Each structure stands twice: as structure tokens, then as C-alpha cells.
Hints:
With 124 residues, the chain is α+β, with helices and mostly antiparallel strands. It has helices at residues 46-62, 84-94, and strands spanning 2-4, 19-22, 25-31, 34-35, 40-41, 71-79, 101-107, 116-123.
Amino acid sequence: xxxxxxxxxxxxxxxxxxxxxxxxxxxxxxxxxxxxxxxxxxxxxxxxxxxxxxxxxxxxxxxxxxxxxxxxxxxxxxxxxxxxxxxxxxxxxxxxxxxxxxxxxxxxxxxxxxxxxxxxxxxx
Length: 124
């Protein structure tokens, strides 16, 4: 196993990697709606935040030359809202067939007080 680190996703001061790779699998840590170029939370609404989370996931995957086509599982965490329909619309535009398995969870809170985070598992 090895860690994945990239400037295409926000850095974290927490004790975990942006992603890891083991054998044929890549695991992307839950990505917040933070623009890696500015280090700031995207505040244009849940749709824009979901897009940023997916951009960050894609950035980590790109370090292994992977795309959403290789994503087999997404986990979507929403804090303080259950507006999954908005996030579903964003995912429908961004994900490719065959579509990955998805788990959607409404949680009390997320680190840093962000409203959404998305993690992924991909297979080469």
C-alpha cells in the first residue's frame, strides 16, 4: 500500500492520506468542498459544493491515471441537510456508466463544519 498526495485536492492536517492505493484498488478519503488552489470552502450552494467534492476526488484519482469510469463505490456524506436530490443531479452529470454503487448518509456534522464530503473506491 502507498499514500496518494496531490495538489489537485485540498491538503489536510489530519492524520490520514488524501488517498491510498493497494493492489488494484485506490481509496480516496472523504473530500470536502474546498478549492485546493485557494484552500477555501466553496460557498455557492450545495450543487457547487458537490461538484467541488467530485473535482477533488477526480484530482486524487488522476494521480493514478484513474477516472470516474474506474470508481466502483462512492460514499456521500451530507451534514445538516437531506437534499440528496441536488447531489444526485450533480452525480448524474459527472459519473459514467456503469454507475458505481453509492451509499448516501445524512450525518450530524463533518470535520471543519463542511456540509458535504464524498469518498471513493476505484479499481484498475
